[in-house]
Write a structure and sequence with these properties.
This protein is α+β, with helices and mostly antiparallel strands. The chain has 6 helices and 7 strands; from the N terminus they run βαααβββαβαββα. It has a domain of 117 residues: Aminopeptidase (3-Layer(aba) Sandwich). The chain has a 7-stranded mixed β-sheet, with helices on both faces. It is globular and about 40 Å long.
Length: 190
């Protein structure tokens, strides 16, 4: 398969797709689950309206420093999550990564890992980025396992950064360099 023939946005079970205005109700519905919100962000769990979700979609689609994607299951084209590169610093060739699977029924099925593989290939091979980073709350063991499986290295911790239900939790900083990603055992398609 030549480079031109390879679909960099499609995996075995999921694909990356542009977020569209029709996705706004789904994104807003995910914010009804405080558990989802408490894995996604260090801020307070706050529900969003469809209008606010639509504003997010429009802002990200117009940004010169972000690439936000919907994560769609191939079997039924259902939107199961979002993933993206944010705050890209083109001069330094760095970006932040964010990923989330919306409904609990879709958690733990490998969609996030497959989407991350696609996004890493896009970031390093297509956008020519050199470093990616993310933060994850210490209690999000499933996400931490995924990031480490993908080759991300824990670079530090913001100690007691997050407070949830009267308890303090560290916020871990993870990074991945293109050279580290290229040095990993090859999967087919890369």
């Amino acid at each position: 398969m030549t480079t031109v023939d390879k679909d960099m946005f499609r995996g075995e079970r999921v694909r990356l797709a542009c977020l569209a205005k029709e996705d706004a109700p789904i994104l807003a519905a995910w914010t009804q689950d405080a558990g989802f919100l408490r894995l996604q962000d260090t801020g307070i769990a706050a529900m969003e309206t469809e209008e606010k979700s639509l504003a997010f979609i429009e802002r990200e689609n117009e940004s010169a420093t972000s690439y936000a994607f919907g994560l769609r299951r191939l079997s039924d084209d259902a939107l199961v999550g979002t993933i993206g590169l944010y705050e890209i610093e083109w001069a330094n060739r760095t970006a932040w990564i964010g990923v989330g699977i919306g409904r609990r029924e879709d958690w733990g099925k490998g969609y996030g890992t497959e989407a991350m593989e696609l996004l890493l290939r896009y970031a390093f091979d297509e956008l020519n980025l050199r470093r990616l980073q993310l933060t994850v709350i210490a209690y999000n063991a499933r996400a931490i396992a995924m990031y480490e499986k993908l080759g991300f290295v824990r670079e530090g911790a913001y100690r007691e950064f997050v407070e949830r239900d009267g308890e303090r939790h560290d916020l871990f900083l993870y990074g991945l360099l293109r050279s580290e990603w290229r040095g990993r055992p090859q999967k087919s398609g890369r």
